Amino acid sequence: MLAYSVKLTLTPGLMCRSDVDALRDAGFSDRDILDIVEVTAYYAYANRIADGLGVPTEDWVPEEAATRE
């Protein structure tokens, strides 16, 4: 699940049916997979909105995490 989410975040154009099949093989239902995609996509969306508006990072986020790409 985490490898799928990282791939979807970093290289969304490379996603393919075998990525979904791997989740199914690991025991995830189609609903689970939809939830994984929606949560991953939502965080990408929310982060882009915040970055685009120059919203500062929360104080509790370590500096190295705030500057990581």
Short description:
68% of the residues lie in helices and 0% in strands.
Describe this structure in words.
The chain has 69 residues and is mainly α. It is 68% helix and 0% strand. The protein has 4 helices and no strands. The longest helix has 24 residues, at 30-53. The chain is elongated. The two termini are 20 Å apart. The model has no long low-confidence stretch (mean pLDDT 91).
Mean pLDDT metric: 91
Fraction of helical residues: 55-70%
> Which structural class do you get from the secondary structure elements?
mainly alpha
Percent in strands? under 5%
Low confidence ranges = none
Could you tell me how far the N terminus lies from the C terminus, measured between alpha carbons in angstroms?
20 Å
**Shape from CA axes?**
elongated
Instruction: Describe the main β-sheet briefly.
Output: none
Helical stretch tally:
4
Would you report the number of β strands? 0
Question: What would you report as the Rg, rounded to the nearest angstrom?
Answer: 14 Å
Order of helices and strands: HHHH
